[in-house]
Amino acid sequence: MRASLLQIDVNPNESPDARRDRVAALVLDQRGSDLVVLPELWTLGGFAYDAWSSGAETLDGPTADAMSEAARGAGVWLHAGSIVERDPDGPLYNTSLFFSPSGELTHTYRKIHRFGFDSGEAVAMGAGTELAVAETEFATFGLATCYDLRFPELFRALLDAGTEVFVIPAAWPARRREHWTLLARARAVEEQAFVLACNTGGTHGGVQQAGHSLVVDPWGEVLAEAGDGEEVLTVEFDPGLVARTRKDFPVLRDRLMGIQPPAH
Fold it and tell me: Which of 2, 55, 126, 149 could form a cystine bridge with 91, CB 3.0-4.6 A?
């Protein structure tokens, strides 16, 4: 399987419309890949809070339209990163879009864990409540987003839903870059799965991004890692390694289910 992670540089001087057109062209350039992955909130910026309300879109908005056309034109499965979704009947959401090679929007994922504690995303957006798992001819993909990476229970739930490859778009800041690579490797080792983690470059709302998108195999080995700026990271890997790893080193069968806290 051939995957391309597009580490987009979010420049505040580039309009969302211009960036959308530029990224669509980059997706089209990935003909020959099986899967293309984009970062989190690449149209507006993961820390550009002031732009979220005015730039929010519906699931049939301009980004979805452009990415559907790009997926169809390139003939790839496309994880189009995430958008600020405006739910006509609810709050804003940080919502990922997953397209088939025919351009169909097959899966969406509203980010469950919102970053910011008592500010930013944590107060500006609603929390998702549902897992998203996409079965394809190559592998079963589990969808998570950025801050989700810090919560292993989510990945264990995705594992139980059949996930073999985790796809994680992000807008992860440079000051916590070591956490980014450490947690991506940890999730791969814990779940004995591939991790495809696609970050942004550039600066969002004054916050420098870490870049360093990476692909990790089920043993925790980093197969490829990007630098700091805009870059296309392409890697070939065998999804069949997941089943072989789980068979040869069957650690997951030793899980203790339903552990209860001690009585007081």
Answer: 126
